[in-house]
Write a structure and sequence with these properties.
Structural class: alpha/beta
Number of helices: 11
Strand order of the largest sheet: 1-6-5-4-7-10-9-11
Number of strands: 12
Strand content: 15-25%
Distance between the termini: 118 Å
Helix content: 40-55%
Oligomer: single chain
């Protein structure tokens, strides 16, 4: 019995050792295989987590601070009003301690002006356009609309020096990188919209001339209306015969491209473009847009190409002050007010112009 037991144990021992050795070898192979597999998986997982976190951070920043579309060939532009407050200790233009680089507004109004129009600007500042930065800021806060005089450059050193003195005194200009020439107004207008879009995030951008009498409160009411079409072009719409005689005023040298009659477009003294329209203009390369002789026709041609909604509103081209007028000018006698420096003050002294109540939104 002991002998049998010894043989049994002796024969069983090698079997057990062989089996354990076999399992040990398999375990080692599996361990090596798992090590080879787990390292790439670990690296992939870490990279996935990294890119996921980066994506979340990017999305949060994008939502918190939306960046404007690229603005092509805008050149150098400056908002002297905001530059003035950024250099001061005032917190009036700040939100949570940070200067707003591209503030959100209901509207931005660029009053197109020139080097020979100091008397017009003086008339505006003595009537509906505030004459100092604090009052201009209060108007912006009350209406949701920012107002600036828009002007380009001059090769005349004396004119430039005079403008710089005016800028230092009033701080109410947007300076754009174009030469001031009447025949280049379409180029200035495009540069204005690009600069305005770069500096301000507005629902609407308004181009206005410096020879109209404007009611900012009523303009705000107009812009605040609900509209279903995000591509909107608001103005006093017109058509008319194309002038092809070089000796006549409003001669259109590219009239052969238009035909006998102009397409529907807004009068030039004031019109409004919605944000989506201006975003497209800001992203367009300058040489991709057709320039006609006159600015209002040029803008109108772009609006046709962009398939916008034309909103005809006669309250922004009223020839007299009424209970509904938003902008008053001497249509059709003059493109703006005739003798604007005098007429601006004359209209302001009429209670119907300057003191009549603002219309509620449903009335417009």
């Amino acid at each position: 019995m002991p002998l049998f037991s010894h043989r049994h144990n002796s024969s069983a021992l090698p079997t057990s050792t062989t089996t354990n050795s076999s399992y040990s070898a398999k375990d080692q192979k599996l361990h090596k295989l798992n090590s080879k597999i787990s390292l790439p998986i670990l690296l992939f997982s870490l990279l996935s987590i990294f890119f996921g976190l980066a994506g979340i951070i990017f999305a949060v920043n994008a939502v918190r601070r939306p960046s404007p579309l690229p603005v092509y060939r805008c050149g150098r532009s400056e908002d002297t009003f905001r530059a003035f407050y950024s250099l001061s200790d005032s917190g009036k233009l700040r939100d949570n301690g940070a200067l707003l680089d591209r503030p959100k507004l209901l509207g931005f109004v660029g009053i197109q002006t020139g080097f020979g129009s100091a008397d017009r600007r003086a008339a505006l500042r003595s009537t509906w356009f505030p004459s100092d930065p604090d009052r201009l800021l209060r108007l912006e806060q009350a209406t949701g609309i920012a107002f600036r005089f828009v002007i380009g450059k001059s090769k005349d050193a004396k004119k430039t020096a005079q403008l710089e003195k005016e800028i230092d005194k009033y701080r109410d200009f947007m300076l754009i990188d174009v030469q001031e020439e009447y025949l280049k107004l379409p180029y200035k207008t495009l540069a204005y919209f690009k600069a305005a879009f770069l500096h301000f995030e507005a629902d609407y951008y308004v181009k206005a001339d410096d020879d109209i009498y404007l009611r900012p409160d009523r303009l705000a009411t107009l812009l605040a209306k609900e509209r279903s079409n995000p591509l909107t072009y608001i103005g006093c719409m017109k058509k008319g015969h194309v002038i092809t005689d070089p000796k006549m005023k409003w001669y259109e040298k590219s009239g052969h491209l238009i035909g006998n009659e102009y397409f529907l477009h807004a009068y030039g003294p004031i019109y409004v473009l919605s944000a989506n329209v201006v975003a497209s203009l800001a992203a367009a390369r300058n040489n991709s847009l057709r320039m006609f002789s006159t600015e209002d026709v040029t803008i109108g041609s772009w609006m046709l190409a962009m398939n916008v909604h034309h909103e005809d509103n006669r309250a922004i081209c009223d020839p007299r002050c009424t209970s509904t007028s938003i902008a008053v000018w001497d249509i059709p006698k003059c493109s703006g007010l005739c003798n604007p420096a005098f007429r601006m003050k004359e209209l302001h002294n009429i209670s119907m112009c300057s003191k009549s109540p603002t219309l509620p939104p449903d009335d417009r």
